[in-house]
Amino acid sequence: MNFTPQTFEALHLQFKPMVKQVCLGYVKGDEEAANDLTQEIFMNVWNALAGFEGRSSYKTWVYRITVNTCLSYLRKNKKLLYTSLDTEHSEMNADTSEADEYDLLFAAIGQLKEMDRLIIMMVLDDLSYDEIGEVIGINPTNLRVRIHRIKTRLKEIIENGKF
Amino acid sequence: MENFDTYKNQWQSGRKQLVEKGSGIEEIIQLAQKKKRESIMSHYGTIIVLSITFIGLVLFFKYIAPFNELLSHIGMLFMLGGLLVRILAEVFSLMKGFSLPPDMTTEQHIRKMMEFHHLRKKIHGVFTIIILVLYVIGFYLLTPEFSLHIEQKWMILMHISFVFVAVGLYFLIRKSIKDELATLKEWSELQTDLHQS
After folding, report:
1. Does domain A5-160 correspond to CATH entry 1.20.140?
2. Does B171 lie at the interface with A, CB-CB under 8 angstroms?
3. What is the pTM of this model?
């Protein structure tokens, strides 16, 4: 499939807010890490674009790159994996009383496990079970059970204010 | 789950705050090309260094210290053979590493990353140890003939310095294996988590 810098520009324009939001949710609101990660994801998008075969939509394709880059990024930056998460946790704790609902949702997502965080952000973005299955590579039926469990957990965190 | 639509709306409205003016795609493209080049160079770097060492050894044995005895020839073969196997292992690892496109499914990505780190663990562990042992045996097979040409004090110095090199290498190999094992454990935990419904 042919691609040009214009194709990349269009993808960047369309999906950057989506990617940035996922990154922010994934690194629990660490703006600097999210910007760094967003840039890395689009570098991977550029490098992989020549191999895009059009078997999936651009959205699920970009999501695949986003999820894989996020997982690898945290393993390369082990400080973020082990230390800053706790720091972020206590910072969120202090801000909760003044935060608006979006911030509360964001903080609640941050309390979920790594994979659950990524999956629930796709659900919030209105991806279907089939599309999420296409990104993650697991059976949509299994995914359905898991998503139900994550939704319940998220609701529980928000309602009980467990930040 | 009636609240969930509210969360969806909050999430989707929150995204609007993230729309920025100006794309900066030229910078991303440049960085992406640089990243690709650097990644290739870092992978080829080890192969280049090992190959230079290999060529250096061949030249040393051919022009500076042409050994004549059978024992020395076996020693040379051990040293060069071990190094050659290490170079081939790096080439294999490079080929494996490059077959990791970023747009696989998460399940495939995790599986491939685990395979890759398993291979790295083997290369840094068993492979490196076997090759080092071959190298050391090879080196000591050379010493009888070598000692005929240099003074004894230099031979003693060489044996003493070898202890320091061995200790350094032990810690280096141990650290590499520990790093690979830690990374492997993280990917393995992710894989377990992914398959839990």
Report:
1. yes
2. no
3. 0.81
